[in-house]
Amino acid sequence: MLDAALRKAGAVWVAAANHPPRLVWTVWRGGALWVAVGPEEQEVPGLADGVSCRVTLRSPSTHSHLMDLTARASLVDPDEDTTAALTAARLNAPPRWESVYRLDPV
């Protein structure tokens, strides 16, 4: 269920390091959520390498709560395929992120 739900989700709520949750766009790839952040992109206060995050997933059609999960953030340098997926997720706009985090469910 987790894989199917996250594969369909274009956006999730992420709360990192006791900060309020933020709605962010993500890409589900390789069993993890990928989040691109930066001043000209989206911000997730408290998101850092090794930080534990709470991820809340809502239904894209009804917006009802589907699930919460805990994930561990890892600062990564995305490969070419992941960069292409992140670019496509933002409707092929030029990338403006400074950092990419991989959120692995724990």
Biggest sheet, spatial arrangement of strands: 2-1-5-6-7-4-3
* Mean pLDDT reading: 86
Radius of gyration: 13 Å
Shape: globular
Give the strand tally: 7
The percent range for strand residues is: 35-45%
Query: Helices and strands, in N-to-C order?
Result: HEEEEEEHE
- Total number of helical segments? 2
Oligomer: single chain
Poorly predicted runs of 5 or more residues: none
Q: Give the end-to-end Cα distance, rounded to a whole number of Å.
A: 15 Å
Helix fraction, binned, reads 10-25%
Going by helix content, strand content and strand pairing, the class is: alpha+beta
Main sheet properties: 7 strands, antiparallel
Written account of the structure:
The protein has two helices and seven strands, in the order H-E-E-E-E-E-E-H-E. The protein is α+β, with helices and mostly antiparallel strands and 106 residues long. A seven-stranded antiparallel β-sheet has the order 2-1-5-6-7-4-3, sandwiched between helices. A hairpin with a 5-residue loop joins strand 1 and strand 2. It is globular. The model has no long low-confidence stretch (mean pLDDT 86). InterPro entries: Split_barrel_FMN-bd.
